[in-house]
Amino acid sequence: MMKHSWNRAVTTGIVIGFVASGLLTLPAITWASSIDENLAAIRAVGAEGQGHLSAVVAVKELSKRNSESLIPILKAFDHANPLSTNWLRGAFDAIAERTRNQDRKLPVLELEEFIGESGHSPEARRLAYDWLVQVDRSSSDRLIPGMLKDSSPEFRRDAVQRLIDLAEKSHSEKPSAEAIVLYREALSGAIDDDQVKTIAKALRELGEFVDLQKHFGFLVDWQLIGPFDNSEKKGFDVAYAPELRIDLTAKYPGKLSEVAWERHATTDEYGILNIAKQTAPHKGSVIYGFSTFELTKPQDVEIRLGTPNAWKLWINGDLLFGRDEYHRGTQLDQYRVKTTLKGGTNSILIKICQNEQTEEWAQDWKFQLRVCDSAGGAILPNPSSITAP
Asked: Which residues pair with 286 in a beta bridge?
């Protein structure tokens, strides 16, 4: 059983086994007569048991088909919900396993072609790849080098690691110039923090400058205003003036005195803006941060945020998301919010709330924010908007 599918496929297999043995009695269900009907029944699976019994029957029938059904199953992953994906994966594994055990060939050329089409589901492409390399080990050397900027984070990681390994070997055997080229190429596709740190460390040891702020796409220049009152954590739901209208010349009543917008920039290479060090009082308070992001044309993006504090996020005046939770830790890309930025200037407003806990571990009041694509690659603004207004 493939490592990506074991838990889900076992669950599917147990249910199918119950059906086959008669331990699970199903209502009258019309058995699907075509692969399209099988796949439609599986894709119709929803929460709270919706369509599950029909899917059990469809998966059982689909799993009996031959290897010609593998590519249609993979294509059915596109836009499928997570529950449906689990059922599809189980059916694919069952067919592929039976085909291999019977010494029959998997459709290698078709699988490789499917993997190379980046518009398909990353999960489906990876499933196809994991099976392909079992029967054709040379496929990895053909496919992975071209996936440095792939839409699938897993494939990108493999491509980056390949270059890291080549760079390390080059550095140990040849002059460092070749290693620098390889490390730079690896960094251009790296999205996982552990790999980025490995590459940055190596390049810096070779005397190279590495700008991690730019690499990850952190917004580092902000206009901040506050503090506003968050005693007893009431400020999260209070719409203070910056939520109603952005006027960078305005002044408002704050928690203790009048407050105004002030520009703050962070030099932290991971874009962390430490509010507690720049604004007082920092307990039981709310701060707002404002910046802009300019694009030449509309683009689907992910806003990725890290903070240990409660927060809300607005893009172009629309509230996208918020989380009223404190001190559960923080990490890179802790929260991910999908949105579409317009062509031209986009406004970004963030509200960061600090509660009144006095424990040492509850003193952090900070955030980091970046704009990236769905794989985690940085999307950089036009040069005219790299500083806050």
From this structure: 228, 353
